[in-house]
Amino acid sequence: VNLVLIESGEADAGGTLILDGPRRDHLIEVLKVAPGQPVRVGIIDGPRGTATVETVAATTITLRCRFEDLPPPVPPVDLLLALPRPKVMRRLWAQVAALGVGQIILTNAAKVERHYFDSHVLAPATYRPLLIEGLQQARDTRVPRVSIHRQFRALIEDQLDTLYPDGLRLVAAPGARTPPSAAVDERGGGRVLLAIGPEGGWNPFETALLAAHGFRAVSMGARTLRTDTACVAMLALVHAAG
Amino acid sequence: VNLVLIESGEADAGGTLILDGPRRDHLIEVLKVAPGQPVRVGIIDGPRGTATVETVAATTITLRCRFEDLPPPVPPVDLLLALPRPKVMRRLWAQVAALGVGQIILTNAAKVERHYFDSHVLAPATYRPLLIEGLQQARDTRVPRVSIHRQFRALIEDQLDTLYPDGLRLVAAPGARTPPSAAVDERGGGRVLLAIGPEGGWNPFETALLAAHGFRAVSMGARTLRTDTACVAMLALVHAAG
Fold first, then answer.
1. What is the pLDDT of residues B76-112, one digit of tens each?
2. Chain B neighbors of A224, CB-CB under 8 A
3. What stretch of H or E contains A145?
4. Could you read off the pLDDT of B141-169 as tens digits, one per residue?
5. How far is B63 from chain A (nearest CA, A)?
6. Model-level pTM?
7. Which residue among A102, A136, A225, B88 is least enclosed by CB atoms within 10 Å?
8. A232 to chain B, closest Cα gap in Å
């Protein structure tokens, strides 16, 4: 944890914050803080700040926080991901949040197995703590918006313009000739939505529908990567190009 | 599996290859091949090629292979990695091989726990199949060389010039101002060695020793990433810059 995230309201108006439970234990046992020491803090979806440890008690730790005026900007990249199998998705939540995305749009596809949608990794009670873990790693406060879509066609045709009204649309396609940096450079600013397909790829209908809705194919070369590796690699490339 | 890797000698001089066990089952049950169909094949550390399915029997499958004249080039990137905890290292083997590295140099560091070196994830019997899994995903045949170093100082001072005699040396450092693309561009070709530190970072001695031995600090921005995320993200950036 490189920044301790708290809910709005956990610190009082004077900036006093009393933590107990795992966050108190993490500060003392892992970060080994002591009275007088500074700790990076942030309010979920709010500003970052610095806290000073005031007192350490048997079950609590008391900090005095000062927050910046403004929250950090929302990352300029969004992710459209064909739902990977639950074990992979579980690992991706924190990694994607750490890399920085404004929203995560999860979708069905021909090569996604239906039962993936029944997994508890898609329950907010499971994924929100994982997103927050990633934000605490990366020192961000902005929890990505998450939406889950069981119908790919309805998502692309009817809902996507509302979810993502304006910006560049890219789809990772092994063998495409354009690297993400070139596509982002040409556009020159604004948001980027990156689509990553299922293991086995989009089928021809899905590929055509994405193309018809403005998605440009980009690639990172001839190597075919697993979904989770591709997700991290392509998000890094799109961020670096921005 | 996007390419089936075999050991040199498994196919006879005429190109006939008989597979049994998990590789036979994977071809039939997952890739659903039938007689007459083409399958991408490769010889470990040798050339890639195409095979045609000749016959499918109860416990075997027979293929006729034709290989290219030359093996694919060794990827132009090497990785120097402070050994992460075994669970993370286990996941990295295939991902790193899929992204493409010529060698993986694993090292101790102040913030690496000693017992990590006793893990069976460092045994060739464990990691070689994982490397091959990554190569089969990415359609490469070149198994990364692996070396394991329990003494960071001896590695950097005495062994590194032999392991990595010539090329650019980069170290990922959160907060560094140079992106990997700029460092690679300046150099203009040749191999790149990318160093990724432990969770918690290199200590001041290690940072200074790396700098004294030609490692240039590069970063992908203000966000601090976990070792595994950083590894995949930075390898993608270095590859894209090459």
1. 999 999 999 999 999 999 999 999 999 999 999 999 9
2. 2, 98, 137-139
3. strand A145-149
4. 999 999 999 999 999 999 999 999 999 99
5. 23
6. 0.94
7. B88
8. 6
